[in-house]
Amino acid sequence: MEVKNVGLRKAALISDDDEFFRLALSSLLTARLGFSDVIETETFDGAVDALSNRSDVEIALFDLNMPGMNNWQNLRTVRDCFPEVRVAVVSGSKARSDILMALSIGLHGYISKGLGVSELARALQAICDGAVYLPSFLPDLPITENEMFAPPEPETQPSEPMGALDDLTSRQREVLEMLVNGMSNKAIARALDLSEGTVKFHLSAVFRILRASNRVEAATSGSRLLGRTRAPG
């Protein structure tokens, strides 16, 4: 069944470093789904800036393989901080683990880039209409040993997970460094030329990745982690 334009929607966001794919997807969103505006970014940080400064975004689509998309916690934080936005992955990956992870963190869909135009339009329409879209080939993907014999989650986790700094985007690391230096949200926003809403998002992501429950814990952990990476002066 063909997807028909049933009325003008507000704005959509595409975050993908493939310019040609963004162009094709943007055309589909406007011509077939009736979006009045499509915001395009090529980095995760750019997407966060857009979401923080626009209140009219209905759907946000993220590629997994682009600058800043180095941790699933970032997409989980998008869901938490922008609950009114339908968030989905549009990726070339057909890995079962990626699809199940997207589902487990509460995303509204996982769309394969290999879909034809009509099926892609139907997938996007389903997500916009409130459904959770998963690829039809998911049941045919083999179950990995890691899924069958996954170890139980530890009862306690280290307060500073190894490699935590590598899981931060460049912008999140800047925010963490300023937090460690005692700067307020307003001062961080002014220094980085961001809105306070964007700073709050990045802090939420930092808290989650560092497993901190407040600014003091994040600053304490950040100070130790950043100290480990600095060469002695």
Automatic annotation (TrEMBL):
Superkingdom: Bacteria
Modified residues (4-aspartylphosphate): D63
Coiled coil: none
InterPro entries: CheY-like_superfamily, EvgA-like, NreC/VraR/RcsB-like_REC, Sig_transdc_resp-reg_C-effctor, Sig_transdc_resp-reg_receiver, Tscrpt_reg_LuxR_C, WH-like_DNA-bd_sf
Gene3D superfamilies: 3.40.50.2300, Winged helix-like DNA-binding domain superfamily/Winged helix DNA-binding domain
Glycoprotein found in the keyword field: no
Record keywords: DNA-binding, Phosphoprotein
Swiss-Prot/TrEMBL GO biological process terms: phosphorelay signal transduction system; regulation of DNA-templated transcription
GO molecular-function terms, A-Z: DNA binding
Chain ranges of the Response regulatory domain: 11-128
Residues covered by the HTH luxR-type domain: 161-226
Keyword Phosphoprotein (UniProt): yes
PANTHER family: HTH-TYPE TRANSCRIPTIONAL REGULATOR YHJB-RELATED
Protein name: Two component transcriptional regulator, LuxR family
